[in-house]
């Protein structure tokens, strides 16, 4: 394979939206990265081209059998106009793990990272510099062969698109209200829960819509076998601080291995805060709450970094946490992680990648 | 909404493949049906146009969050050049049930059927007339709004494409070998198992590939909670004849409500053959086999109509059924159903729709 990334710059640059009033995922930058795959050639023609629509046969398997996986990460710009990525190599590792589960060919992680850095560098002006904003990056692979047989596609396309996004917390951190779902299930062991693939998100929409209508910002999923053990939130992993110990559900195969989750665990260990990855039931969380030992709860994910949970609604009961206020530890983790991401704090773990 | 279907005929007709040597889902007819949806307009612009590629923004939610559903049915042509559809209204009913689960707007079933009949009529020459062949029809809806937020799309496209397919049984009915899967899971109650949506098929590919490599043509899925009860085969529902009674797994919410399944149940009741829809475990099938009471087993689906099962591989044991030969009842059902479909048998249930 020819690993040389070809670059075709856009003749006309689009007008940028106001960086102080960005909506999530609505505007896209001037360029995108594309690379195609066929059984015979492997991955070929890596190229950066102007952002543009793509053309597919209506029988392309992506439309019918959903062979697709994606990633999500961000680029941050600070006051000194420095641009950083946060652990991007972890995203490409996870992309490849997801690919294996979906019978999609893996990409060369080094090439993907090189392409990403080049792309961000070319569209550097699109990385917003207003406090809390960032450039959201979406690598993804779709199956493109026209074929109605239910069998892995012979052709794929890997792409990276990017979109400037606003601050998650415009008026300081607000703890969220989350509904615990006991009927519908997101994923089970042996399913695709630990892969970042479209079907997981499509399956969750109906429940998410119901939760939103009832005033809850997200859904907390329980395991598919017993409807007992905590899995994760719509697009966040979840942590509980109980009597001084931080607990997060273990990687059982049915939850996503969040990169923020991983970073939080590493940070807590570094600080000497007791943290354990294990099964944890809603029962246990409820009892800890009743005994006054449920000190904090928060979600972790690329979008919010840390999202304090103020209230859980479960089996008709409201479990309110830390008086609906952001916990001390949650805030400390948030400040440290965002500080590392933006280049304001030391980076003892080497998590930052600078884009020149 | 303007329900008038606009028709734009193709200036150039494609060369047709040889109808005695067709592969599944590789060639498409001259025309396709399209209808678009927006929140403001509802479904609009129903139209039949030349078969052609479609163009989408790379941020279209179909590529990321997989909001999509599909259907599969067939048109048959007999020696008198008559063309029939088999219970097409059932497919559009199921399409709409799947849509609700995936937060996709429902289509007008009458309009969809009218469009389908018009489309088949226009591409009537594409319905192959060689024994056992048919025109496979694929209605599907995809979400098209460019938006990286995980929320139901505001825009959709409904399409119907068609492909001539060869005979399933070229050299008579061959019983298939099927591997029972006890680790991976296809769907659970509360999941999307009873919706015909891409994610279910994407999730199954890895296991299907392993089964194929081991010499099994399909996978038999067990329930996601206990890994005990029989669900369905890759793209077929499943029936067992045990000691004179025909048993098929009940519609638990995690299996597809097959139209062939429904027709087989109605046919058996019509004939006075005892048939029940209930939970059935692999344990029970195994015991029936040990006691010599497992008389027949077969899958049902649009592709094969009836597919006799000659062997099940479960927990390291081979369960061979009826000496690997097609059972009497299986054959009778097959002959009756295909006879009705092609217009050779009476149609006491009114299942046929003639295309003029
Ligand atoms: C289902 C799910 N869980 C967890 C996460 C958090 O992962 P990360 O920290 O890598 O963003 C995400 C999103 O990104 C997700 O989609
Ligand atoms: C998962 C699954 N189950 C069962 C069936 C059988 O349904 P039908 O008889 O309507 O073709 C199909 C396919 O069509 C299917 O995809």
- Catalogue the ligands: pyridoxal-5'-phosphate
What's the helix count of chain A?
Answer: 7
What's the multimeric state? Answer: homodimer
CATH architecture of the largest domain in chain A: Alpha-Beta Barrel
Q: Report the top-level CATH class of the largest domain in chain A.
A: Alpha Beta
Give the amount of beta strand of chain A, in percent.
25-35%
From the spread of the alpha carbons, the general shape of chain A counts as globular
How confident overall, as mean pLDDT of chain A?
95
Residue ranges of chain A: pLDDT <50 for 5 or more in a row? none
Going by CATH, the homologous superfamily of the largest domain in chain A would be D-amino Acid Aminotransferase, subunit A, domain 2
Would you write up a description of this structure?
2 copies of one chain form a homodimer. Chain A is globular. The two termini of chain A are 27 Å apart. With 356 residues, the first copy, chain A, is of the alpha+beta class. Chain A has 2 domains: 6-165, 2-Layer Sandwich (D-amino Acid Aminotransferase, Chain A, domain 1), CATH 3.30.470; 176-341, D-amino Acid Aminotransferase, subunit A, domain 2 (D-amino Acid Aminotransferase, Chain A, domain 2), CATH 3.20.10. The first copy, chain A, has helices at residues 62-65, 88-101, 109-122, 198-213, 259-271, 282-290, 328-342, and strands at 6-7, 31-38, 42-50, 54-56, 68-70, 73-77, 83-86, 134-143, 155-165, 176-181, 218-222, 230-233, 237-242, 245-248, 275-277, 294-301, 305-314, 317-320, 352-355. Strand 4 of chain A pairs antiparallel with strand 4 (54-56) of chain B, so a sheet runs across the interface. Bound molecules: pyridoxal-5'-phosphate (PLP) (2 copies). One pyridoxal-5'-phosphate binds at residues 72, 232, 235-237, 256, 258-261, 300-302 of chain A. Residues 72, 232, 235-237, 256, 258-261, 300-302 of chain A line the site of one pyridoxal-5'-phosphate.
């Amino acid at each position: 394979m020819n690993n040389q990334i070809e670059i075709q710059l856009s003749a006309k640059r689009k007008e940028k939206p106001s960086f102080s009033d960005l909506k999530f995922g609505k505007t896209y930058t001037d360029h995108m990265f594309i690379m195609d795959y066929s059984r015979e050639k492997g991955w070929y023609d890596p190229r950066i081209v102007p952002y543009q629509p793509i053309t597919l046969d209506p029988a392309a398997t992506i439309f019918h059998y959903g062979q697709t996986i994606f990633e999500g990460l961000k680029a941050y710009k600070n006051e000194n106009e420095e641009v950083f990525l946060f652990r991007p190599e972890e995203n490409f590792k996870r992309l490849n793990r997801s690919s294996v589960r979906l019978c999609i060919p893996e990409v060369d992680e080094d090439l993907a990272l090189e392409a990403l850095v080049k792309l961000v560098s070319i569209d550097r002006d699109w990385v917003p510099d207003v406090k809390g904003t960032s450039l959201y990056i979406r690598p993804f692979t779709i199956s493109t062969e026209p074929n109605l047989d239910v069998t892995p596609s012979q052709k794929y396309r890997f792409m990276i698109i990017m979109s400037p996004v606003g601050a998650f917390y415009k008026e300081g951190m607000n703890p969220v209200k989350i509904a615990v779902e006991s009927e519908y299930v997101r994923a089970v062991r042996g399913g695709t829960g630990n892969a970042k693939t479209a079907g997981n998100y499509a399956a969750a929409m109906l429940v998410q819509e119901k939760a939103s209508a009832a005033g809850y910002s997200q859904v907390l999923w329980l395991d598919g076998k017993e409807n007992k053990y905590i899995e994760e939130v719509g697009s966040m992993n979840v942590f509980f601080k109980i009597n001084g110990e931080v607990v997060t559900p273990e990687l059982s195969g049915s939850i996503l291995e969040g990169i923020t989750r991983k970073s939080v665990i590493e940070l807590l260990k570094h600080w000497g805060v007791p943290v354990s990855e294990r099964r944890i039931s809603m029962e246990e969380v409820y009892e800890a709450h009743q005994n006054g030992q449920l000190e904090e709860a928060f979600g972790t994910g690329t979008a919010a970094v840390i999202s304090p949970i103020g209230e859980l609604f479960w089996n008709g009961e409201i479990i309110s946490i830390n008086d609906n206020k952001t916990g001390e530890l949650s805030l400390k983790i948030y400040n440290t992680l965002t500080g590392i991401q933006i280049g304001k704090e030391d980076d003892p773990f080497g998590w930052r990648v600078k884009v020149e």
